[in-house]
# Entry
Amino acid sequence: MTAFGEPQSVALVGGTSDIGLAVVEALSRSGVVDALFADGDVDVVILAVGALGDVGSPLEDADAAVRVAEVNYVGGLSVGLRVGRRLRSQGHGVLVVLSSVAAQRGRASNFVYGSTKAGLDAFAQGLGDRLHADGVRVLVVRPGFVRSRMTAGRPEPPFACDPDDVGRAVVDALRRGRETVWVPPLLRPVMAVLTALPRPVFRRLRL
# Structure
């Protein structure tokens, strides 16, 4: 970090759904995280391993749904713990974890994906609390629908955003020392309302 708090080194783990599973499998049997820190301290590590999967057929293809869970939750846990240990050892740094607004309440349309992100979100919050005293911060990012290769061809819901919107929000959150950021910010009150709805009412929304 510079004297003004600007990161000098950034590591990205994942980044596209196409390579998410390959990264997870590689991490489980090699020292990839160690290699990220081989040249010295890393100020910011971005954990972007994730897969959406076929949200319409988890009941028909349980194996595919399990693979999504392995990438999004088990993979995130695996990377997050290893990165957290290294950041704690160096005594500073930020782990940016890409969660999702889908983590906030299970929805029939993507309940498998949402459940994996809910697990990752809770893990990231707890990890941040565990590492706080060591000078390490975990930033949980909760974007809504992002126009990307992962969502190409899917119906676009309200509050959709672009990758650049997420990038700018993350940079602003890093500079402000925040631990959670919603993209766009309006999703925070929207999800607060949806989360508070009684389940029978929420179910009728068919989200």
In short: The beta strands are 10-14, 44-48, 93-98, 136-143, 180-183.
